């Protein structure tokens, strides 16, 4: 059962780096909803986009799937024959709970696109031929010097006409823009019930783990990886999602 995120509500003598462990998995749905503006819209839209681009007899990858929200949305919207979704995450706690969610979805909804959950490092996973790949707030946790390599592997695996959906928190070179949107993000968190202590401690925990890029950096890297055209399709404050086409 999901719980309210109280992980950073008490003062911590030392704030450790953020990890996707069992404690985070337990509160993750509440955490992500209260922390990422536009998250429900992004998730539902990923399902719609996948429904448009999924090819019959092909694979779909949800890389860094966490609890499988994007996978669940895609299962509802993909309607082509013999298509299968593979949800991949390196966290054992996340993949275990993801599997439980997918089983619960199976019990409630008929005729869903088949999906399987895999615990693996996405940097080491050999990708098979596929029509859709999702990196939903995943690339920002990949070491910067490995990001191009991952995107090149995705590009190589995608079928002609395939699509990558890449959602990320953004940083901005212009300090005024950065400060304005960062402050609005903190206001969003306060409005969702987070205290100043929770905001500060979460920021300390994640600042060395999550390293965001500018939108321009993302688009340039996607072009370097081989994608013919990339564009932002959604932005709310300092969070966005991009479609990259092969």
TrEMBL record:
UniProt keyword annotations, A-Z: S-adenosyl-L-methionine, Transferase
EC top class named in words: transferase
Entry GO MF terms: carboxyl- or carbamoyltransferase activity; S-adenosyl-L-methionine binding
E.C. code: 2.1.3.-
Subunit (UniProt): Homodimer.
Family: Belongs to the class I-like SAM-binding methyltransferase superfamily. Cx-SAM synthase family.
Biological role stated in the UniProt entry: Catalyzes the conversion of S-adenosyl-L-methionine (SAM) to carboxy-S-adenosyl-L-methionine (Cx-SAM).
Protein's UniProt name: Carboxy-S-adenosyl-L-methionine synthase
